[in-house]
Amino acid sequence: MKPSKRxxxxxxxxxxxxxxxxxxxxxxxxxxxxxRVGLAKGxxxxxxxxxAGTPV
Length: 56
What we know:
Layout: H1 10-24, H2 29-41
């Protein structure tokens, strides 16, 4: 199979990124708190098994 010759155009990619950020809105304080706690505690606090939604 030949590699694709198409490449994303930087201007179009930048426009899509800007639109996605505009549509996503601001991050709420609650979301920021979750991210801060997640960074501080690390992976050891991640749910495992049934809490994570994996079939057992």
